[in-house]
Design goal:
By secondary structure, this protein is α/β, with parallel strands linked by helices. The protein contains ten helices and 14 strands. The chain folds into two domains: about 120 residues, Rossmann fold, CATH 3.40.50; about 160 residues, Glycogen Phosphorylase B (Rossmann fold), CATH 3.40.50. The strands form three sheets. It has a six-stranded parallel beta sheet with strand order 11-10-9-12-13-14, with helices on both faces. A five-stranded parallel beta sheet has the order 1-6-3-4-5. A three-stranded mixed beta sheet has the order 2-7-8, with no helix packed on it. A hairpin with a 2-residue loop joins strand 7 and strand 8. Helix 2 crosses helix 8. The termini are far apart.
Length: about 325
């Protein structure tokens, strides 16, 4: 892996981080990282790194936030580092902090380079082309991720046909007028549809606290609903696991075996589609449709993006 190398500043050189320009280093001296939003990494960065590994014929070492290892099954050596989650592609300050936790001389990670003078990231002669999401994923220099189940499903679920509903309890972009989550009324519609078709509903949520919440609905009402007949609440099952990586591995196993996934706008929809399970995405704002369409084409999986859930359920019948 040889080419010109220009650090953005002396501070970056001392910190051992690189996020633009050509990369010149022995592969054993590099750890590829990502510390931004999960969906950005899965859509735009990690498929490029997987491509670098496959095209170069050498193993790569990676680093990410806690829980990220479950999604990087191609990595020869993955390190999870507990730094604050960055917006979008992450931040330079995050990379400086993360670099303190690795043994390799160089941490290579993406940042959103702006302006006509911004240098593209080039690794081993391969240009990172997918540095803008909300467009169809490019297929050159891009290797789709592959997920396989590494955890066993809980007893009582293993032989039960089920659909999966991804939990969400926060507002996108702080906009309280856009409710990109399944309400308790929506969940009743899904349960009734699933019952007519011989399925139970797995409610896919980690035990609280999981992420900042604006509480779309009364949590006591939600708890009562998902503990009633027709539902299996995965929260207590995940709660028996110690680490976020273990929870994500089990979550992937549930997604891979589901007959259908009801996702919400965000990274959970990307993971659902990458599991190659037919997916309905509830989307009431934003610009994510090209991403979901591109992923569904690359992974050859059925996708339905809806504003009104009842329309989707009628089409699924």
């Amino acid at each position: 892996m040889h080419a010109r190398s220009h650090f953005h500043s002396r501070l970056d050189a001392r910190a051992g981080i690189k996020y633009t320009g050509h990369i010149q280093a022995d592969v054993n001296d590099i750890r590829f990282g990502f510390f931004g939003e999960l969906g950005y990494g899965l859509l735009g960065w990690w498929p490029f790194i997987k491509h670098i590994q496959e095209s170069g014929g050498f193993p790569v070492k990676t680093a990410g936030l806690p829980g990220s290892g479950a999604f990087l099954q191609f990595s020869a050596d993955h390190l999870e580092i507990d730094v604050a989650t960055g917006n979008m592609w992450g931040s330079r300050s995050q990379l400086i902090q993360a670099a303190k936790h690795i043994d390799e001389p160089l941490l290579v990670a993406p940042l959103h380079a702006r302006g006509p003078s911004a240098q593209p990231m080039t690794v081993n002669g391969r240009v990172w082309k997918h540095n803008t999401i909300h467009q169809l994923p490019v297929e050159s220099n891009y290797a789709p991720l592959a997920f396989s189940a590494t955890e066993h499903l809980a007893c009582g679920i293993r032989d039960t046909p089920y659909v999966l509903v991804n939990h969400k309890d926060y507002f996108n972009w702080g906009n309280t007028s856009i409710t990109n989550a399944y309400s308790t009324s929506d969940l009743v519609l899904i349960r009734d549809w699933a019952d007519r078709n011989g399925f139970v509903v797995l409610y896919n949520r980690f035990p609280a606290p999981n992420e900042p919440s604006n509480l779309y609905f009364d949590t006591s009402k939600l708890d009562s609903l998902v503990s009633s007949a027709g539902f299996i609440d995965l929260g207590p099952i995940y709660g028996d696991l110690e680490t976020l990586t273990e929870r994500n591995r089990l979550q992937l196993a549930y997604m891979l075996e589901a007959r259908h996934i009801f996702a919400t706008q965000g990274g959970n929809a990307v993971i659902s589609l990458m599991s190659r399970t037919p997916t309905t995405v509830l989307m009431r704002g934003g610009f994510d449709y090209p991403d979901y369409l591109g992923v569904s084409n690359l992974y050859e999986v059925d996708l339905s993006v809806v504003y009104d859930l009842s329309h989707s359920l009628r089409a699924l019948c």
